[in-house]
Protein 1
Amino acid sequence: MSGHNKWAKIKHKKAATDAAKGRVFTRLIKEITLAARMGGGDEASNARLRKAIQDAKASNMPASNVERGIKKGTGELEGINYEEVAYEGYGPGGVAIIAELITDNKNRAVSEIRHIFSKHGGNLASSGAVSWKFDKKGVISVTPAGKSEDDIMMLALDAGAEDVKYDPESTEILTAPSDLETVKGALEKQGLKIEKAEVSLYPKDMVKVEGKEAEQLLKLLDAIEENEDIQKIHSNGDIAAEAIAKFSEA
């Protein structure tokens, strides 16, 4: 199981709470608003907006919220001027972390993220310090539903995927960014249940983290996840299973 996938599972469990769902809605609205401002309010011609709307529907966001977000982005309704920023740093155990945010106040955002890193045994780094440790990939998470690793590998490669990170609960299939939708469609036709499909940063290599460092890293990632401006977190930490179990029970 990849560390990338482990943190995704922890986030999924956290999203079961009402407070976490509220944060998800806030993040989706920001993404919808920014996507509409940058590429227009027509999802047919705006791939980023189309993806954001799909994510909103998957999270059961009311259609009226989506519509308001689009109108704020296009200027039909008064809205906040959001900007995209990304901060890079190191966590416990030398784990590389990239935090992507959408914010209306970059000074506040960097101050908060720097404080979170410092408080939990990490340090914020300069732009480019860790981004070279990641590649941009299409990442498709699927439920194997009893299919073996060989079965998934064959289906994925036949569909045009580059690689498979197999896990019996949730498997990640990697593609070239431009091939994401094609591979996703081919896998759906083969009956695989798609949990999530997006272009994302994927670690080139994982860093194994155990014991106290693993527990501290989880607290750092969780604190970043709680930030109101955060959109995505990328990490190359391969977190020990016992640390995840302890954190999930807390």
Protein 2
Amino acid sequence: MRKAVFASVAAAVILAFAPTALANGLNLNGLGARAISLGGAFVALADDFTSVFWNPAGLARIAKGTFGASGSDIIPSGSYTLTLPQPVGTVIDTTTQTKHYLGGIAAYAAPIAPGLVAALGIYTPSGLGASWDGSKMGYISGGRTDIEWMSKVGLVTFAPSIAYSFSDAFAIGASLNINYGMFDTSMYAGSVDLRPMGLPFAAFDLGQYKESETGWGVGATIGLQVRPSSAVSFGAVLRTASTVKFSGSASIDKLPALGVNGSSDMRRSVTWPMWLAAGVAVHPFDALTLSADVQWTQWSKIQTIATTYLDASWAPLMASSGKDVMPMYWQDALQVRFGAEYALSQSLKLRAGYYMDPSAAPDRTMNILLPNYDFKGITFGLGYAAGPVAIDAGCEILLGTDRTISPDLVNTDPNYAHAVPGLYKMTIFAPSISFAYRFD
């Protein structure tokens, strides 16, 4: 009963906060304070409850029933500036609204037969979001300062998992990933020329656009770990693509003035792409562990995102305006990660890490609602274990490379027609904490 209560509370907390996690691409950079403080170089080291995310083969290393939960508070600090050639000058100078985007993982794992471990996990592998001060966005909101500009894209994964250890040297594992997705957007709907309809309005303001959707998809994770000796270990993981089929509704507040329904049901499918990772960990001496990972995501699967509006009046309207297709043209990305752990004692360990995380989004589709940056991540943390209890704390600082999209380029190059010009900056501070309990 006690284990069930722990798991229910953790699941409720993760579901409450999952939709608003900020990340690069659509994925978070890692889960679990221990793994995060090692720069996410954890594929070969995974041997705790977070293995359901990092490498399910690591679950086979769990000798007794274990429950764990971890949470991260992702605090972005970004800015957006749009400066036009003189004599116009700067027309937008704003910052992201201060928000705390929470994500996490919880799992229970236990041996069920010699060498065989089963687990059930729930975690937030993905999230992307932005929220801007609409009062400063008038230049791209038809002069209005009451338009809300925000986006939230998130994924919660329920992961029943199994792992088997053939020997101390070799283990395999797999998870079924049942994915629940969320997609919310608010922005300026733009204006429409009504003169072809016989009305005297060349630019009729459509006002606020909003949409909200949820959906389900299924995928799997397969992993292995090889430990030929106590001094070295290797790991490899494949997470399959998962297409989430969203359904929900959209609204445009001024459409009823044109005799058109103000809202429409909608459908949209988004594919979370395949993820491949490989890692190695070495122990030069007993107190020191060094790890390194390469992690590749097939973001090129996201070229465009199409939306079907079910209302008969919305379908031709959105098609004629091009609003039923969202160009992305994302590119595959390779992360390189490094971590180090030093044991000050049997109970206390210090950790640090570094990783390079390139943006999936090209300049030609950079925009304020799904912003992407090239990040350099600096991580650090510590872990303490006493008896059946383990507590880990970590922190990551993500330094985003400034991105500049030229207004002239957007105006003259058709390839940049879907980019939002301006100067984008982003830094993210993300503390995390984990707790695990081993049931004897």
